[in-house]
Specification:
- Chains A, B, C, D, E: Belongs to the anion channel-forming bestrophin (TC 1.A.46) family.
- Chains A, B, C, D, E: It holds the Pfam family Bestrophin_2.
- Five copies of one chain form a homopentamer.
- Chain A has 298 residues and is mainly alpha-helical.
- Chain A has one domain.
- Chain A has ten helices and no strands.
- At the A-B interface, helix 2, helix 6, helix 7 and helix 8 of A face helix 2, helix 7, helix 8, helix 9 and helix 10 of B.
């Protein structure tokens, strides 16, 4: 996730970090070059068939419909993913508070909360496709870390382990069991929600429709601009290509919000937030906040 | 569901699997041919009445309104269906955890969770209109599978059977009964949600309005393009037909998300995910993930 | 509710059942006739003031804004209404399961579930403004049916009666009381939700604004089409009138989703679904599914 | 709230009650007069600078964006407010049912439900800024009515009083306390939701932006219509002014849905619905429905 | 938050407080000056390349798409933030009522509710990045205020402290523990929701795309207006710049709703509402409402 102040009006045009331009400059240049070629041929060699700007307008409304829909859907996924992680942060903090209220035997609090931290890291590992063992081991020891990681769904296994711990405690009243079970179940629901997002991309057919339509649009545009913008055409084509290819590139990133990309969610930082909260609940020294490196929070 | 990486810019135009083109190429060609005919008659025989591109723009805004609405509504159905199945996955996992916490007599866990797996398969069978007996039998035996399948609503009958099992267990405390009953009730709510989607299509009148409007639009378009795009007209008509008929075809698939089509939900794979989770909870050997065949996950 | 397969491309233009055309053909013809008149006067008698198609475009965007908003709002009401009924189906099934788990004295199950079926029918009667006594009597007897129907809000009275039954049962534990009370309360919430939809139409002022604007638009359109579509104008006007009046007519039906109209919700069929579920829970012979008659499910 | 049947096509243009025209006719006439003046000056005195209709189109898209957003946001507030009141109706009915189930000492039911009715009236009074003492006194007596009204937040004080009553009852089991407390808490949440809507208008800056933009748009329009609509211009201007100022006036009313205006919510009628439900629960004679006076339900 | 009546039509154009103009007048003037320069050069020196207004229309639709999306997303954040604070107000009031019902030892009520008030202030301090000690000390004393403020997340620490208080009370039944724990957990969830909003801005790439596109649009507009609006061009450019830069400036403020800006949420006033409710619950003299100063409620 990019963390950066709003640039001044001047800086605005020179920022690359966090911009989508490095990903699409090839396409922008391609469209501009095509536009120049069309102009030159039309002026110097023979007249090309023109497309009226009104016809492009019809096409543009349809393209906006597609891009707008896909953008909304992708952003909703991104924001829902963030909400699910926010729920997990709240649930783990609330787990600490529920232990305080309902489990008199405070020696077990640390063990249980450590397992909850491990759950968060294992879940992050699963979502990003990375190995989270190093982050997990300090909390639950190498043996358990290894045995959990060996499961097909390590985060789910961590929650199962947690329920075993709850069951074994004799000091919990029925009310305490009920409340703490509810928090585990809520963690399970958030986890399944994230899995839903990661295993179910937007229907593939949309991506094809949108991408193909964008290419066709930007390929036809130079023929429409001959008349309506004259020698502005290459610049104008490039701007429109920037707008449409740019929106599409953004959407691709937000659609799968857990990946390790610039606009992905800051899962490392959120796991650290969980660690800090757990440490403060257990009266341990909390670690430092996860650092923003080169404007990026991972 | 299509599972496929983003194609390169070059490949993009040659992908058919997952594309909507095989379903609508007839219409695209039809519109292009009409456009050529209109052009030829207009140029060679007698001048046809032209429609100004501005008038088509007015029409196009209305059509976009319809298509956009229908697309959003269909996508919402598809995504809600996916959420409901995600809830069922989470609820069945959570059922396992609740049994761990609340039901000391662990000999019954397997029986109960097997019945939950059977519920998922029977529900899938109901939604897709297929026979799920083969998938159910290994979990609950042929007799019970048969008697459940004989009911009008087998998945509902499986949940009723589950509640019978809960009732019969003497080791459950009242709190355990409460929590586990809540999970059954949540499964019942998700099941009813899926039934709602499958039995209530989008109002039929929308389909008529949208389809008729699309046909009229694409039929009038060639008359509008004579002037504004010249010899580009057939190509342009085909592109616009691709865009509008394509969106409509996508929408038709997403509207009924449980069907066995390319962009339908991967119910088989989700039932397998449930089986894996249940096996891991019961310390059994989990089966392999459901395989993607030819880019399609069923 | 219309239940019908997608028509072929050819059939599409000849379907009347489920179409909005029988409701608006007068207006479509009116607009076409006006357009012919304008054309004839303009060509044969004296030149009429023209409206540029661009000006109509501005107007059209505003009209689309109105129609789009109203359509979304009406569809949301329709779909929310369907969700509330879906919740009631799930709650009544879940009531059966909760009785299994929590009420050992199974002799009362039938009485309680019959009352729940009666609730559904009385609620349907209230929403549609019809007398549901005939449907209710077989379940709860003529006397109770009569006394409930005499109340101002019979469905609410049925729920009150249900809570009396719960109170009178001595075999229910506190947990059972809690869970079953929650289901009654959830039924009460769904019922109040339906009442909200039925007693609170969309703000009247929207209907006026939208209808007046549509009339003005279709009245001005022929003056704009003289220039831009020539002799296509009557046809074009008729198509646009079909689109805008059609969308408005659809919206009127969806706005009040409980009425006995073609696109209203299938309350009869849903009450039957409830009856089937209750019969299967009580091991009684379930009745047949509610039949689709002439493509309409009531 | 306006309660009125759909008018016939003829009546449609002569309805004033429920229409927005009485509030904006000054502006409509102003725009029409300006348009006539512009036309006359342009034709008779000297040519005015024209604005192309295309430029107005760009402006119009932006204005539609603003008006559409503000309209959606205002309608959402109106509908959420209605939902919150619907929840309160359901909660008070459910309170009656919960008392039946959980509080054997039925002598207190009346006292508690009367206090709930008083809560609804005091809440209505707070939201509308009116004195609700007259409506409250018959239910809870003059003394308590007075002491509650003296608080800064009388409705909240009524809920506090209710919780005192619950606490004092010895016949309630813990389960009963829990369930009834949840209903009180739900009433408190709905009340706070209504307060949120009433104390947090839409950001003021939107109102300025939208209103200013509408004025500028309608002021520039006559210059654009000289060319594109000729002598239709005054009529056309008036229609567009009707559309845009009309939508804005509607939005102003819906934004604060509790006020005593034509399109405000029918709080009086909903309080009466609550009274009827409580009377029927207590087997008292229910009062008549709140009457629609001159098509308005308050 | 701006609290101000709707201005009259005349005042409307002279209001600065609450308007976005003071923030963007530089840009508006810049665009107007550019437009004058373009006009003069084009008329007096040499003809500049024109951009057709139709081409700008295509661009304008794309820009509207971006601005509309970003505006909706920012407003949703603002409104969700307000809902979360509304939930906290309701939860703290409900905490008071739950103490009444479930905690017979009323001597502790004050202590617990004071801590809840402190939680609200500390949370406000965290969100706004200000020191809330002065507001907290009168409620919980200087020592506790200091020790809480020393934590990394003081509001979370206050909730942990609250759960300690609940645990220590012997007079609470299990039901009371359960209900009150749920309220604490709900406060924790709202707090985490606010943290989510404050730590996760809208994806940075959107801000870049939107701002760059707006600049490009307003920079190209004067070339398009030469033809289509003539000497109106500078005025027209300024108006369009006002609309687009204005919407963008509004969006920037709503995106981070907790900041101490004109359109930020009135956190001070909401904390005061909580104080008043707590005082009224404890029968203490409530403080005055937070005052609106110069039309601004902080």
């Amino acid at each position: 996730m990019i963390m950066r102040d709003y640039p001044s009006s001047f800086q605005l045009f020179f920022i690359l970090k966090g911009s989508v331009i490095p990903k699409i400059y090839g396409k922008i240049i391609g469209v501009a070059v095509l536009s120049i070629a069309v102009l030159l041929v039309d002026q110097l060699l023979w007249e090309l068939p023109h497309v009226s700007i009104g016809a492009m307008g019809i096409f543009g409304v349809a393209l906006s419909l597609f891009l707008g829909f896909r953008n909304n859907a992708a952003y909703d996924r991104w924001w829902e993913a963030r909400k699910l992680w926010g729920n997990m942060i709240a649930d783990i903090r609330n787990l600490g508070r529920s232990l305080t209220i309902f489990m008199p035997d405070s020696t077990k609090h640390r063990e249980i909360l450590s397992l909850a931290v491990a759950f968060a890291h294992l879940h992050r590992g699963f979502l990003r496709g990375v190995d989270a063992s190093d982050a997990v081991t300090p909390w639950i020891g190498a043996d358990l870390a290894k045995s959990l990681s060996a499961r097909k769904n390590p985060a789910n296994a961590a929650l199962n382990e947690l329920s075993q711990k709850i069951k074994d405690d004799q000091s919990l009243s029925g009310f305490g069991q009920l409340k703490i079970a509810e928090l585990l179940l809520s963690l399970g629901a958030s986890q399944a929600g994230c899995e839903r997002i990661v295993t179910t991309p937007l229907p593939y057919v949309y991506s094809l429709l949108v991408r193909r339509t964008t290419y066709l649009y930007c390929g036809l545009l130079p023929f429409a601009l001959i008349e309506s913008t004259g020698w502005f055409a290459p610049f104008f084509s490039a701007v429109v290509a920037y707008v449409f290819f740019g929106l599409q590139a953004v959407t691709n990133e937000l659609e799968l919000p857990f990946r390790h990309v610039q606009n992905g969610l800051a899962l490392d930082a959120m796991c650290r937030t969980i660690e800090i909260s757990v440490c403060e609940t257990l009266d341990l020294d909390p670690p430092a906040d996860w650092a923003v490196v080169d404007h990026v929070l991972t």
